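Lab meeting tomorrow. Please check the following:
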Amino acid sequence: MSSITYARNEQLRTVKPNYPGNKLFGRQFANGEELYNPDFSNVFRWKFLTENPQKEEKKADTWVPEVVDCTAFLQGDQDGLVWLGHASFVLRSGGVTLLFDPILFDSAFLKRRHPLPCRPEALTNIDLLLLSHGHRDHLDEASLKLLARQNPTMQVLTGLGMAAVLRGMAPGLTVQEAGWWQQYDLHHAAPLEIQYLPASHWYRRGLLDMNKVLWGSFLIRAQDKLIYFGADSSYAGHFEEIERQFGPLDIALLGIGAYKPAFMMQGSHTNPHEAAKAANVLRAGHLVPMHHGTFDLSDEPASEPLRTLQEIAAGGMLRGELHAPAVGEVLRWPEWE
């Protein structure tokens, strides 16, 4: 029986009353109270034993998101939110620029279906790099190295256990780790508050590191608005907990893709119906979908996630306003009611 301990960054403020820290079973982080180890026999079942019932539909579906160049925004100083594809965003507020989960290059297993809306070299003047977790479609070594070179004063905000992973890639990085429900120390310089919050997911990059680095989501308070980056997560009770702690959110960035087959994906990601339910539970005024259209990670046809979500919104089942931007389109979020 693994020993049970709790971990947090003792240097940071914990915002949830009486929260003891993240539960560890031995050296493995848990999803709340429960240890979650994905069943990798499901990978074999998916790849070799299961026929995709939408195989032909998927093959014929060549939809990709529209892409517009965002270089001018990156080189300017105006507030805005830009989707770079997948789960990568640039958020600027009051002269502070945040970059979330950037994947700037193709790799052996990840081939972009659409171009990046800027040259990777345009991502300069990044103040804060927010890394939700260590999966390779959210943390890419080549991207991290380039960003570290181009942004020597950039600070990384991430979860417990990640600093050692990152310093193996870019040794000079300034990294601040947090447990769930903890607020990062931005040294009073930034007109922002950022908290690391729960997600229902898991971690693995190598053979022997299952769940040894924490995963999570982020909440940013900027200009009296609450902006939630849901990262990778299955649908779970943390959405209700977040709403109880913080009240209605203004903007939610939530994943809607990589959900089929359910036996493989439902422990990791939300489908469009679950994302809409999460946005409703969070009482989000605005929903910006992500984690679809950029990489081919699953069995659903490319256009299905966004089309389904648009149908949900059109049917009156989404309480907030849906924004489905082009990749690279600048969303003027401070102007949203």
Q: What stands out?
A: The chain has one domain: 4-11+67-335. Residues 4-11+67-335 form a domain with the Metallo-beta-lactamase; Chain A fold (CATH 3.60.15.10). The longest strand covers residues 80-85.
